[in-house]
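Hey, I was hoping to borrow your eyes for a little while. A protein chain has come my way and I'm curious about its shape. Take your time with it, there's no hurry, and the full record follows here:
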Amino acid sequence: MAAQEVAKGKIICTEGQPLDAIHIIVAGSVNAHFSGGDIILRKGDIVGLCDTAFDSSFFTYTTLETCSFVSFPLKTKTTLAAIAKANPEVGKMMLSSTINQVALIFASFKTAKTKCSALVEKINSLYSDYTDLCAQNNVISRSLPGIEELAEVTLEEEPDDWVLPYYISMKEFPPELRIALSARIAFLNGLIHKASYDVHTVFTPLCEMSDYLDETSKLLLQESGLDLFDLYSSLLFKLKQGTPAAEKVKTTLDEIVAMAREGGHVDASVIDSKYGELTSKLSGFTGEAPASDGATAPAGEDLSNATDIILDYADISEEEKNTFKQLLNQYKKLTDKASTEDSARKLRLDLTKAFYNVYNEAFKRSVLEAKVPKILMMFFNFGFVDAELAGMENANYLYRIAEDFRGEPYKGVYTIYEWLSGIYKMFKEPCRNEFDADFTAYLHEQKIQGKITAAEEKSMANDPEERLNFELTNMFPMCNKVTYGRLSSFCPVLCENDIIKPLQSCIVTIDSIEESYKKLEAIDYGAFYRETVYSNAKCGITKEMINVRVLPDIILMPNVGTRGVMWQEIEGKKRTTPSRFMLSVFHIEDLPTTIVRLVGEYRWEMCKRVQGARWNDVSERSLTSEYFDYIQFYRKNNELSADAKEKIKNSLTKAKNSFKEMFVRDYITWILFEGAGSPRLNKIVRGIMVTYCPFPQALRQKIGANPMFKDFIERYEIKTSQKLHHYDNVIQKMTASGVEVPEELVENRKFIEGTV
């Protein structure tokens, strides 16, 4: 068979494409890319050989130079044996290339595992050195988000230790033995198919490790900051230049950059940008504190008197003012504001109590006035109290944005001031309290307990101040603390120590929220849809179930924090009311990932709400009942391997035996990895996700060829076609009768199809 020449950079076969031929490399080299890595195939290797046990390719093969190939069509799985039987020389190449490719892929697995361990060890070492340097130079160290959760990579399944040596030993076979083995067609065919299966068992752990290295490398350096490069950079500008400590920090920064480049898991443009920014700052660094860049910053006395302005506005007693100032001054003097010592903890608690007293009184006055002072808006929306404590540069920035900083309530995004104002003005209902009771239920309970009369219950239900008090004393302090993220060291007063990245880079806006929604719905298009009853007498529709999109209300808490809160899944009892998510107004973690977590919690709670008492009854199929059944009986599930069961056990321990937390973590994996075509979940969870959190049609078509998704998606498409058949009949009857099809039905058909 004549060789065919292929130019450099050409793709021979892509991942997911049906395998219709194998290609012997006569000259040149080919990159075989798979989810989790690459191997290089050279002269004598066979492209497609390790995919022959499957219907489609798991690799994307690209020529690295001009190559020559001899190709053999594959019509059935038995064709491979026929090719080897008819071409003994090709049989020898098959044996040699099989052993070579398996050895390369398993060596990649071994290398990746070593890299994971080395990276964890190095990050822990760098962070330990950082805290030591801070202590030695009397600098308050900053925490590194994610360092406490950093652990060695855990894999769902791993190949047995004997597999790699088994194939490597074959590479040492003498030529005469290789010839003899390749001539035994049944043996050769069996070896190739076994090798093909063995190779595919490594793909998932390789993908897991690749993603682990991607995520863990963010602790070294990432676009948003919150990394070791950021910590060491900040420390450098607090040290006197030219000292041994400063030089050590510079050396470490160079080391971090080198690690990020060599690892290949941090975007090169991000590395160049961050390092260039540091170099630029160093060239102009004089050792003095940087001046504020705000030409519109207020006069110094305005912000220096901010505490007095806030306290005077709150109209509290002189004793309360003095107490607040004393507590604030004591807090400012704390060297370690996150100290766990009893005295520091008590001080934070006392200051927190005083803060909310001032906040409540000031807010009640503000809703009665047409114009609220700018410094008070800084206090309400950002928790600002003292310029020195917040840092003058931060205070100036907040002053510049305070007047114009708003949410967009008509899109469901509220500043805390807008939200509380909406409660007072009766536009919104108060949130539930920590006991899951809404304002109406709370008043009713008060009446039952004899604390208020029936007349008082009725009067208080429509009293703006009572509604406001309920919100200020329940949801607000609880969510402000939880969104902050570090519960044991929480204090609502804005402090520079909490600001570990520029405020302007982490402020939550309607644009950043909508972008997060867009990313999520590109994977889980039905995340915000609710099922409801539709009727239209004019069209002859008495009852039709449709799905409508209901976005959550997002309320921005006045802090610099790391967490989001899914506070409630609906308002009252009506299922088409918005859920309520709380976020820090300055959110220093990755916002899209936080939104994914919140939606995972929301999906779980919404399903429980719809299913009621039968939320975990598997006889009534639902997301929660099937997932509950999976976790409850995973030990007896024959479809799960021993390694998969061990992984579930470990995950349950990490989730503190919370089935909801287990689901949320799997949902995050579903959105971030599986939606990108990178399998991470076991097949039981994948089946549940395909059923209840399906991909949109375009993504289903793209991923459907992957054997790990194929069966689940095919079953989903069958159910979808049945639903569409019903809708098409309804629409056809209406069209035939000359009735205009309601937009609601048209949109719902798109929803079922996955094309909304």
The CA atoms of residues 160 and 198 lie 10 Å apart. Residues 88-136 form the longest helix (49 residues). Residues 288-301 have pLDDT under 50 and may be disordered. The first strand starts at residue 4 and ends at 6.
